[in-house]
Write a structure and sequence with these properties.
By secondary structure, this protein is mainly α. It is built from 10 helices and no strands. It has one domain.
Length: 277
C-alpha cells in the first residue's frame, strides 16, 4: 500500500524557492516584485510550526484513545485531518474509517481514489521489474517477504499489489539517486506507514494485537513524518540564506547597476520610442 509523502509542507516553501531563483534571474527594474521580508518569512515558518504542533497534539490524543481501549475507528477519526500539516491524513488508504466505513482489503489504490501519481520526466528511464524488486528487498524487506509469500498463495493478488506499488517505488528510487537524505526519510515514512496499516487490517480481521505494538508503530510513523518536515525546514532555511546572500550581492553592486542603466539611457537614440510609449 502506498503512503503519500507530505507535499503541502513543500508547497509552503515554493514561494521561497521561486523568490530565490527570481533574485538571480531578474534585473533590478522598477517593476521587480519586492523581495520577501524577514517578517513575511517568519510568518510562513510560524504557520508551518503551528500546523505541526496541532498535528502532534491530535496524534497524542489518538495515542491516548488507543491506550484507553477506544475502537480503532475512533482512533483514526482523532488523527490529523487531510492536509492539516503534512499534505494528507496519516492513513490515506484508510480514509473511510473517518466516515465510519471499513477500508477494503487491498483492492483499492493506496492513495486517494482517482488520484494518479505525478508523471516522471521523459528523460528519467522507468526502472525494470527486477530493479524495483531489488529495491524493495533492500529497503523494505518485510514487504518483499510478504509479496513473495503472496506470489505462492495468490499470484494474481501479488501482481496487483506490485502494480499498485510500482509508481511509488519508482519515485523513491529516483529520489534516492537525486537526494539520498530525503530518499531515506521518505522510505522510512512509507515503511512505517505500511506497518501501521498492516496492523490495522490484521486487527480488523480478528487478530489479537498488543496495544503497545500498535502504539510503537504509530509513534514510528509519526516520527518518520516529522523527520521529513524537519528536512523541509532545513532545506527552506538553506534556500532563504541563499536568497539573503544574493540580496547582499545585489545591494553591493547597486551603484554599478544604476551607472550601467544610465549609460544605456545615454546611448538611447533621441526621439526613439520605448515600451509603453
Amino acid at each position: 500500500m502506498r503512503i503519500s509523502v507530505a507535499n503541502s509542507i513543500r508547497a509552503a516553501f515554493v514561494a521561497l524557492a521561486v523568490t530565490g531563483s527570481t533574485l538571480s534571474a531578474q534585473p533590478l527594474e522598477s517593476d521587480t516584485p519586492a523581495p520577501p521580508t524577514r517578517e513575511s518569512i517568519h510568518e510562513r515558518l510560524r504557520g508551518l510550526l503551528d500546523r505541526l504542533e496541532a498535528a502532534e497534539a491530535r496524534t497524542k490524543d489518538a495515542i491516548g484513545l488507543l491506550d484507553a481501549g477506544a475502537p480503532l475507528r475512533e482512533v483514526f477519526q482523532a488523527l490529523p485531518p487531510e492536509d492539516a500539516a503534512f499534505g494528507g491524513g496519516l492513513f490515506r488508504g484508510e480514509g473511510r474509517w473517518r466516515e465510519g466505513g471499513h477500508p477494503s482489503d487491498g483492492e483499492r489504490r493506496p492513495d486517494r481514489p482517482g488520484r494518479e501519481p505525478r508523471p516522471f520526466k521523459a528523460d528519467i528511464p522507468e526502472p525494470t521489474a527486477e530493479e524495483l524488486r531489488a529495491f524493495m528487498e533492500s529497503h523494505m524487506p518485510r514487504m518483499a517477504e510478504r509479496l513473495t509469500l503472496a506470489e505462492g498463495d495468490e499470484p494474481g493478488s501479488a501482481e496487483r499489489l506490485m502494480k499498485r506499488l510500482t509508481p511509488r517505488l519508482s519515485k523513491l528510487m529516483a529520489t534516492m539517486d537525486r537526494d539520498p537524505e530525503r530518499g531515506a526519510a521518505e522510505i522510512a515514512e512509507m515503511r512505517t506507514g505500511l506497518e501501521v496499516i498492516r496492523l490495522a487490517r490484521e486487527q480488523r480481521h480478528g487478530a489479537a494485537i498488543d496495544r503497545a505494538t500498535i502504539r510503537d508503530a504509530l509513534e514510528a510513523h509519526f516520527d518518520a513524518r516529522l523527520a521529513i518536515a524537519e528536512l523541509d525546514l532545513k532545506q527552506a532555511a538553506a534556500q532563504l540564506e541563499r536568497g539573503r546572500a544574493e540580496l547582499r550581492e545585489r545591494r553591493a553592486s547597486r551603484d554599478e547597476h544604476i551607472e550601467h542603466k544610465l549609460e544605456e539611457f545615454d546611448r538611447e537614440p533621441a526621439g526613439r520610442k520605448g515600451r509603453g510609449d
